[in-house]
Amino acid sequence: MRECVTEFGCQGLELDGALLAWGTDFIRDAGVWDVSRSRTYQDPTRIHDGFQLRLNAYRVLLTRARDGVVVFVPPIHILDETYEYLKEAGFRDLEDFNSGEG
User: Fold this and answer.
1) Predicted pLDDT of residue 78
2) Are 61 and 71 a contacting pair, CB within 8 Å?
3) Strand (E) positions, the chain?
4) Is residue 16 a contact partner of residue 65, using CB atoms and an 8 Å limit?
5) Which pLDDT value is given to residue 42?
6) Which residues 6+ apart lie within 8 Å of 95 measured at CB?
7) For residue 7, what is the DSSP state?
8) What is d(CA 66, CA 48) in angstroms, rounded to the nearest whole number?
9) Per-residue pLDDT at 41
10) CB neighbours of 71 closer than 8 A, spacing ≥ 6?
């Protein structure tokens, strides 16, 4: 845990493990993915498809590690639905993983 990088800084990297901190720029809201809180991706004169850019950024970040990725979802209300979605998709809580439940 020495470096913190964006999706641009990690392109081409293959790491043993990675920690991804989920942001409020790509959240589940009312059952759909939402990028409206990502201010830098809202200007249609500069950005053609802000949603696709955010989706691709998280795809890159989630696929950099060979052995595993730990995803940290901060305990803030706006990320509750995202957290639940990730759990339903198969992500496990570290507490469950460490206790042998997962």
Assistant:
1) 96
2) no
3) 15-21, 27-29, 32-34, 65-72
4) yes
5) 56
6) none
7) T
8) 32
9) 55
10) 19, 20, 22, 62, 86, 91
Helix (H) or strand (E) holding 85: helix 80-88
Region at 21 (left for phi over 0; alpha for psi -120 to 50; beta for the rest): beta
Reported as a pLDDT band with limits 50, 70 and 90, residue 99 is low
pLDDT tens digits for range 77-87: 999 999 999 99
CA–CA gap between residue 77 and residue 88 (Å, rounded): 18
Binning pLDDT at 50, 70 and 90, where does residue 60 land?
Answer: confident
The single-letter code of the amino acid at 11 is Q
Decide: residue 6, CB within 10 A, 0-12 exposed, 13-18 middle, 19+ buried: exposed
